[in-house]
Task: structure prediction
Amino acid sequence: GLDPATLDGVVIDNRDAKREGQWTAGSGLKGYVGYEYIYAPANTGASIKFEWQSGETTPIEIRLAYGPHENRGSNVPVILHVGSEAKTVHVDMRQKPPLKDGFVSLGKFSVAKGDKVTVELRTEGAGGFVHADAVQIVPAKP
Result:
């Protein structure tokens, strides 16, 4: 897989995230970050949380890596908590991610030093398999 050290910013791999429920490891869809990716069927109550804490006050962009496939969820709920702000983004994982190295942007945010950032993928209403690979946090360009 892609070496997280070669990617920009901070990369949180699925192995560093907190999982609940049943997830299956996979490596058949190439281009994943780290050792493998994991996936779980829709509406199984499975979830995964990628967590990070900011060391400075700065604008950031949060990105999600996934491997597109026709059996993936077309409406995967991704819940973002950035400091006191909460936002839900729905990702169509059947579409190829638009950014380099297989990432999609989840939005730009301002973080203060010490702010916690959580990116949680859930399976409820996902419309197919939820694919969890990595989260990338990069400085936001204006």
Q: What stands out?
A: The chain has a mean pLDDT of 97. The longest strand covers residues 103-111. The chain has no helices and twelve strands.
